[in-house]
Design goal:
By secondary structure, the chain is of the alpha+beta class. The chain has 6 helices and 14 strands. The strands form 3 sheets. It has a 6-stranded mixed β-sheet with strand order 3-6-2-1-14-13. It has a 6-stranded mixed β-sheet with strand order 7-8-9-10-12-11. The chain has a two-stranded antiparallel sheet with strand order 4-5.
Length: about 270
């Protein structure tokens, strides 16, 4: 162990050799861009974390909310972003499960599973809240204070109960909404496992708007799907912000798409 600490990480420099990003990819982090992404676990495949990092680097958001995230996977994604692409992020975790079988690690130090936030700016005042009823699996939210477009903002990241557990999700959004309502300017990222007109999202629509300007609770608009089964489950809820652009990016590394938004202060 002492030798490992002195020698540093065992990965060779070639492990961080950057592959080419698509034409037009930003060279630096975009300060007013945010992203939410359920990275899927358990999803397996060689090079998956390197591929996840490449997807994030292609759009280089200021803040990224990840769901279904193992601590070890997030650490590797962060390292790939830094050493392959020169994008430096701080990380905070909102793990709700110590999951050895799902996240690896060792029995006395299992990898935490839940949410994570990556931010180009330092984060403060982190909170982690586990919902009283997670449904079929423990669920919760986390929140931090950081910078978006150069100004301080409270950012939430959540993952609600699985599909066909509407009543559980309704209780969860009630807990989340009480915390969100305390802030005039905030961003709520996450996988809500519910379509826009689902009754359990009513309380969120009463507080905030989605970054997709064509999407709302009435079902009259056109909400771009964010999952492989062509439903919109992933949201960027805004209070005190206006969306400049919102895009859904297809990806082979998860059953959820990347959702990103460029914002301005309202």
């Amino acid at each position: 162990m002492a030798c490992l600490l002195l020698a540093g990480p065992s990965a060779s420099n070639s492990a961080y050799t950057a592959g080419p990003l698509p034409a037009g990819a930003p060279k630096e982090i975009v300060p007013n861009r945010v992203m939410t992404w359920n990275i899927c676990n358990p999803c397996r495949g060689n090079g998956r974390n390197g591929g996840r990092a490449a997807e994030i680097a292609t759009y280089a958001p200021q803040v990224i909310g990840l769901q279904e995230a193992c601590v070890g996977d997030v650490e590797r994604i962060r390292d790939y972003l830094r050493y392959r692409y020169g994008l430096v992020y701080h990380v905070e975790y909102g793990s709700v499960l110590p999951s050895w079988s799902r996240c690896g690690g060792v029995p006395w130090s299992p990898g935490g599973f839940g949410q994570a936030i990556l931010s180009a700016a330092p984060m403060t005042d982190r909170v982690r809240v586990e919902y009283p009823d997670g449904g079929s699996e423990d669920r919760g939210y986390m929140a931090v204070t950081t910078l978006v477009d150069g100004r301080r903002v409270r950012v939430f990241n959540t993952h609600l109960a699985e599909r066909r557990q509407e009543s559980v999700r309704a209780e969860q959004t009630g807990v989340l909404a009480k915390a969100v309502a305390r802030y005039d300017r905030t961003i709520v990222l996450g996988d809500f496992n519910a379509v826009p007109d689902a009754s359990e999202l009513t309380v969120m629509w009463g507080l905030a708007r989605d970054a997709d300007p064509d999407c709302g609770p009435s079902g009259a608009g056109t909400c771009e799907p964010t999952t492989d089964w062509r439903s919109k489950f992933d949201y960027i809820f805004l209070r005190g912000f206006d969306p400049l652009a919102q895009r859904v990016r297809l990806t082979p590394y998860s059953d959820h798409d990347l959702v990103q938004a460029d914002l301005r202060w309202a």
